[in-house]
Specification:
The protein has about 190 residues and is an alpha/beta fold. It has five helices and eight strands, in the order E-H-E-H-H-E-E-H-E-H-E-E-E. It has helices at about 30-40, 50-60, 70-75, 100-110, 120-130, and strands at about 1-10, 40-50, 75-80, 95, 115, 135-140, 160-170, 175-180. It has an eight-stranded mixed sheet. The longest helix has 11 residues, at about 30-40. It is globular and about 40 Å long. InterPro entries: DHFR-like_dom_sf, RibDG_C, Riboflavin_Biosynth_HTPR. It holds the Pfam family RibD_C. It comes from Citricoccus parietis. This is Dihydrofolate reductase family protein.
Length: about 190
């Protein structure tokens, strides 16, 4: 399977939401359609514990969601990385209590389409550092936060990327997808 990080970020590259620049209920129709297009290839949703708990506390309660996101999240095979969680409390969820990098390496060897990681900054940084990411999807919001954790981990050596998709949405958000260039620190050399 392909390992894909899909992340919402500010113009200055911040993914930690310290201000109110992102609201999952406030997406224009085009952007919601793009998100649903991407989830058509999603076989596994991989989350860190905090992001999982945020999702679990929000999405199952969205009973009148017309975008299809709530239903999709409820149905997808969810994996949560946690050393403390014992009962997920959300259907179709498996807890990964061991080494997340080994779990992702194993997922990568399985046949299928995409393992998508979103939010989960610590997990994303670990996967980036280990060179396990096959595709980066960035939804850039027109907001400058000036503080908070970045999309890429601090101190991580630069890696070349090649853009494979891009578009702009009427609400001001831009989207771009990138693949790591072979031989520059990624485990995969396509």
């Amino acid at each position: 399977m392909r390992i894909v990080i899909t992340q919402n970020t500010t113009l200055d590259g911040r993914v930690e939401m310290l201000d109110d620049w992102f609201d999952p209920a406030d997406q224009d129709e085009e952007m919601a359609a793009e998100m649903m297009r991407q989830t058509e290839q999603e076989e596994v949703l991989l989350l860190g514990r905090q992001t999982f708990e945020d999702f679990r506390g929000y999405w199952p309660q969205q009973t009148e969601d017309t975008t299809g996101v709530a239903a999709s999240l409820d149905a997808v095979d969810k994996r949560v990385v946690s050393s403390t969680l014992t009962e997920p409390g959300w259907a179709n969820t498996t807890i990964i209590s061991g080494d997340p990098l080994e779990a992702v390496r194993a997922l990568r060897e399985e046949p299928g389409e995409d393992v998508i990681i979103t939010g989960s900054i610590t997990l994303c940084h670990a996967l980036i550092g280990a060179g396990l990411v096959d595709l980066y999807r960035m939804f850039v919001f027109p907001y400058w936060q000036g503080r908070g954790r970045s999309f890429f981990p601090e101190g991580h050596p630069g890696t070349g990327l090649r853009r494979v998709e891009a578009r702009a949405f009427s609400g001001g958000v831009t989207y771009a997808a990138y693949v790591p260039l072979a031989g520059l620190g990624s485990e995969q050399d396509d």
